[in-house]
Amino acid sequence: MIAIIDYGVGNLFSLKSSLKALGLNAVVTSDKSEVLKAKRVILPGVGAFGAAVEKLEGAGLYNTVLEVARGGVPLLGICLGMQLLFDKSFEYGEHKGLSLLRGEVRPLSDDISGLKIPHMGWNSLNFVTKSPLFKYVSEGEYVYFVHSFYAKNCEESLIATSRYGVDVTAAVGYDNVYGTQFHPEKSGDVGMRILKAFGEL
Amino acid sequence: MLAKRIIPCLDVRDGRVVKGKNFTGLNDVSDPVSLARRYSESGADELVFYDITASFEGRKLFTEILKKVAESIFIPMTVGGGVNTVDDFDRVLKCGADKVSVNTGALNNPSLISEAARRYGDQCVVLSMDVKRVDGRFTVFAKGGRENRGIDALEWAKFGQKSGAGEIVVNSIDTDGVKKGFDLEMLKAVCDVVTIPVIASGGAGSIDDFVTLFKSVNVDAGLGASVFHYREIEIENLKRILKNNSVEVRI
Known about the structure:
The complex is a heterodimer of chains A (about 200) and B (about 250).
Chain A: E1 2-5, H1 13-21, E2 26-29, H2 32-37, E3 40-43, H3 49-58, H4 62-70, E4 75-78, H5 80-83, E5 88-89, E6 95-96, E7 104-107, E8 119-124, E9 126-127, E10 142-147, E11 149-152, E12 158-164, E13 166-174, E14 177-180, H6 188-199
Parallel strand pairs in A: 1-2, 1-3, 3-4, 4-14, 5-7
Antiparallel strand pairs in A: 5-6, 7-11, 8-10, 9-12, 12-13, 13-14
Chain B: E1 5-13, E2 16-21, E3 24-30, H1 32-41, E4 47-51, H2 56-72, E5 77-80, H3 86-93, E6 99-102, H4 104-108, H5 111-120, E7 125-134, E8 137-142, E9 147-152, H6 153-163, E10 167-172, H7 184-193, E11 198-201, H8 207-216, E12 221-224, H9 226-229, H10 235-244
Parallel strand pairs in B: 1-4, 1-12, 4-5, 5-6, 6-7, 7-10, 10-11, 11-12
Antiparallel strand pairs in B: 1-2, 2-3, 7-8, 8-9
């Protein structure tokens, strides 16, 4: 069973459908005990970092995510869900994250100029280290991004980047904690292969 | 590298995909779910669904179709047509849409853009505008291109970006359905005044039109309808030729 954490941010319909299409058993839940029972956990998210942390805390799930990670259960943060895994974010102020991974989240506009923001669309993956998450994916394949902030100073967990003015953190993984800035559930066949690999971790 | 996107647009009425020229004279084309699947398999980067139904039953049918598409097709989906309130956003987002496009609804109530952007994020709000030259000025039209609102298109685009739209679709009424190429002059004018992604719409007739578009204007995506529906352009073929012309595409 894969638990998709529902804390009131974002659209979970496609994520649930994509796992279902892969034959993976998934449940969208805000129930603590259900999350803790799951064999794998996905932390989704869109919107602003600060508001998401508040909602996660408000739903009483902040510590649950920490517990999942410390218990060794494979955890995958997607988009803002990935950003939440880091120490802090500078999206509209400064906000503390889950600190499961070393690094911080900064505006793309600090580091790139002359390119449109958000970084929206399909971009190709460059691998930094080998990861079981990309077991079925080749370097150069395209995935779908929508974001204006990105993770920095996260060399310890960095597994893939995409080029958009700078090397944008595309995917991270450290022990049992994984994250993708892109949306695997919206990345067609390539995304499905990434979710399949996550289902086999 | 970020790829240029190819986006088929499906106008749906009473559960069927239809296509008209210059917004009138609609023809029935196909079942939306099977057409969407065909596009996803042939390499479409995104799908746009416009609800052009007026009736309550038609609208219900439309959301059922969206759900069916989102259950089996895993590429980004933008939905528009009849979006007048933040509740309308909610209705289509729950069916698996990723972005919602506003057009007449935003002209009637410009704060809809900022309200929706605050609630769902900038990335979710697409400002779609139907534009026509009137006395030499790019002018925004409402109601599927039927009603001149006398609004300057470039000012409207700037307002949309400032209000939190994450993307702009520029549909040229002057070139729509004519299949003689995109409205490069209009698109360039819009691209010059905004920094968010711009999607070109209206006028795609041949593969060359897409090559010319991406080679001459800094748009992010090209949208087409009937050329794809009737297989006048096959998406695999289009992308291969774009790539041969050094346009970055996802293959």
